[in-house]
Write a structure and sequence with these properties.
Helix content: 55-70%
Number of helices: 12
Oligomer: single chain
Number of domains: 1
Strand content: under 5%
Shape: globular
Radius of gyration: 19 Å
Number of strands: 2
Largest sheet: 2 strands, antiparallel
Structural class: mainly alpha
Amino acid sequence: MVINCVLSFVISLVAVWVFMPSLIAYLKKLSFQQTVSEYSLEEYKEKGKTPIMGGILFIVVPLLVTTVSQLIYGFSKNALILQITFAGYGLIGFIDDWLIAVRHDNDGLVPKKKMLLQILLALLIFFIYRMDGGELTLRIPFAHTALHLGPFYLILILLMFSGSSNAVNLTDGMDGLAAGCCVTSFAVFLILAWISQEAVMITFYSALLGALVGYLHYNVKPAKVFMGDTGSLALGGALAASSLVLKQELALIIIGGVYVLDTLSCMIQIGSVKLRHKRVFPYTPIHYSFVLSKQKGGLGLGEVQTVHIIWIASLVFAVIGLFIALH
């Protein structure tokens, strides 16, 4: 099992590290570049020429490695759910990125269509999960019991998948931020898969972590490539699928604490502006408030310093989440 874990990690790391420069060059040739919103902070408008869709590589490589593992260790429904989710949400993100790139604006998929595709994919995943009697229960940490939700479990799944995929998308706003946070989040699920002794799932998480580390080499400041919605939706979906197959639905809220806080900050800001016509935060998602100058209500930190602080916060959330998941 150790050899399987190490090999999957190293193969994915090396593959992404080696092939990413070619992908970056190809994306530049196609002019698939980041389109910066007119509402973006001034200091982020310089990122407009950075290629997007770098997430393609850290999606494809783990999927291929996991498929080989399926052939070696035998079929795993849980791993298949992870693969379908990862590929499916990545495809939705790819369509969105492609439309943005060819139109040279931020109008990708119509939000309603994008959400509909996410919901339909979540329904497919739920159907596969239930094929051989997947439990409709919500595990309660520390209580050593589970709450049977019946048909309401489907509602939970829909909220979990759409919420998680979009939350990681919101967090993907600084060089290395989302990918670094996802490394700590998926490390928790690797540990949980290890405890359950599911070889193919261990392969998936090991390969994904290796691919993300390889991707980070090109994504930390100054980023040479961005993951785009292709990568962020895939990662968020995979987090939701992980909590589903490992029965850690509530622990996910803590494991993904950074994404939750970013999402909540946006919801609070929008609600406050609509109801009170006032902002609560200087800028949202909340991580942007760290880099705003103190004169504008921010903390005045640099982007790299901000990313490192949030990485540490993500690690803390991951450790607490693991503790909750184990009890």
